[in-house]
Amino acid sequence: MGIPASDLGVAIVTGASRGIGRACALKLAEDGYDIVANYAGNRAAAEEVARAVEALGRRALVVQGDVGSEADILALFAAADAFGRLAVLVNNAGVIDVAQRVDEMSADRITRMMTINVVGSFLCAREAVKRMSTRHGGKGGAIINLSSIAPTLGAPGQYVDYAASKGAIDALTLGLGREVAAEGIRVNAVRPGLIETDIHASGGIPDRVSLLADTIPIKRGGTAEEVAECVRWLASDKASYVLSTVLTVSGGR
User: Residues 86, 76: contact at Cβ < 8 Å?
Assistant: First the structure.
């Protein structure tokens, strides 16, 4: 006999196969949500997340998809529709690139960054609103976007394009939150600082957190679980009066 559907509904976590996304999927499963775990390429890792969710007593569905593709996003939400009622979206999937100055960046690099980090988050939020909003017959829900401390610092000499993309996420959080607040949807964001995940390796600086630890007032990098604890709180009724807020989780940096 299978696990029954959750009374709380379904949480979609994009980029759920590793790092912050994985931690969010597990924390939300602990809170009682069924999980739709989206991943881009590493199916084995996503399936491991699904097994961990099921070990917590919740259902899990693994869906491959690139959030840089509208067709993939539509397929992700269609799969979630067949799984249960959407209650939470964690807009986590995103990319960085190798450290470069702006005068070294190609148009292709900048376009890829904005397509995945900005357009993908907008389209996922659009599809979530269509399902959650009381205007569309929904029962409400929560959207949590993953921002970054980067827009407050600018990331000069390394990731100005990434910082700009996350600045757009801050604006999305503010504007969309106010747009749909009366329709039963709370939109917020978490702004991580230097977190110990393997995204730094994909940017060519795998030891970036340790190299910059002295610049953090708390003198260490954060963990994916520490970020996920904030995401789970924003998804919960405990944050029922929190709206269009970007919660900084950066150790004071």
Answer: no
What's the one-letter identity of residue 171? A
Phi, psi of 227, rounded to the nearest 5 degrees: -70, -45
Does 162 qualify as catalytic in the annotation?
yes
- Cβ-based neighbours of 201, under 8 Å, separated by 6 or more: none
Catalytic residue among 33, 159, 162, 241: 162
The first and second tokens of residue 237, run together, are 């009724």
User: Domain 10-249: what homologous superfamily?
Assistant: NAD(P)-binding Rossmann-like Domain (3.40.50.720)
Which residues are within 8 A (CB) of 223 and not within 5 positions of it... i.e. 6 or more apart?
A: 23, 195, 196
Locate the domains of the chain by residue range.
10-249
Token pair 């702004």: residue: 191
pTM of the model: 0.93
What confidence tens digit (pLDDT) does each residue in 58-73 have?
Answer: 999 999 999 999 999 9
Residue 90 forms beta bridges with which residues? 13, 144
